Amino acid sequence: MKRMGFVVGAVALMGLSGCATQGFVRSQADPLAERIGKLEAKEVQLSGMREADSAAVKQANDKAEQALAIANKTAVDVVNANNDVKKADAAVTKAEAAAQRAEAAAARAEKAANEAVQAANEAKQMALKSEKVFKLEQKK
Question: Where are the alpha helices (DSSP H) in the chain?
């Protein structure tokens, strides 16, 4: 824009001095006006590209923020999962200890049952002996 004003001013100054004809001035000013027009068109185009770039940058920034939010939520979920794993490990340890106590109790119960069976067999044998003794005593 400043260049256009400079060109117009230069053309006007030349026209006032009377040194150049109108055709000469036009032949000199028209190529400059075309170049200035092209530059202005490029500036408008670049401005449009800057707006598009700004929109793309904003969109990328929004997506990055969304990704960060998802990453933060995932980190919290991982921490919670880790805590759940620790709780599960503690529960497994307790269950294993309870299973060992149950196995020990089962072993003691089996031993007591075997002893009871043995005592019952001994009592049965004693009862048979007592019956024999009783029968022998009755025969006398």
Answer: 2-17, 22-139
State how far Cα 100 lies from the chain centre: 40
Instruction: Give the 3-state secondary structure of residue 21.
Output: coil
Q: What's the structural domain count of the chain?
A: 1
Query: Residue type at 20?
Result: A
Q: Which domain holds residue 53?
A: 2-139
**Tokens matching residue 121:** 């067999």
**Each residue's pLDDT tens digit, 7-21:** 556 555 555 555 556
- CA dist 60 and 53 (Å) reads 10
Q: What is the DSSP letter of 20?
A: S
Tell me which amino acid residue 11 is: V
Q: Which is nearest to 95 in space by CA: 55, 103, 67? A: 103
- Gap between the Cα atoms of 8 and 2, Å rounded: 10
Rounded Cα distance, 136 and 130, in Å? 10
Q: What span, in angstroms and rounded, lies between the C-alpha atoms of 1 and 102?
A: 95
> What's this model's pTM, rounded to 2 decimal places?
0.43
Instruction: Quote the CA–CA distance of 112 and 118 in Å, as a whole number.
Output: 10
